[in-house]
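Q: What structure does this chain adopt?
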Amino acid sequence: RKSTDIKEKYDAAINYYQKKEYYKAGLLLEEIIPLITGTREQEIAKFYYGYCHFYQKQYSLAAYYFQNFYETFRNSKFAEEARYMQVRSLYEDSPPFYLD
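A:
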């Protein structure tokens, strides 16, 4: 996190994500997403950022970030999956049926 090189931070975040260290990946992605606006890397970073929250069981945040991704990148190859993951996150966040 102390590095000032954006490319190095992006690579480290993707590496953490692939190692399933979602907390560390999320911290780095949160820091670099505003700095890589308008690049191909931003698309992947925002998509993985939603998954980082999902895998940490922060379903409300995951739903928000997947919706944000879908609204920003409607023509992305990940758009359909992001829409599905938004709904899945909302489902996971809902209380059990027997509490009705």
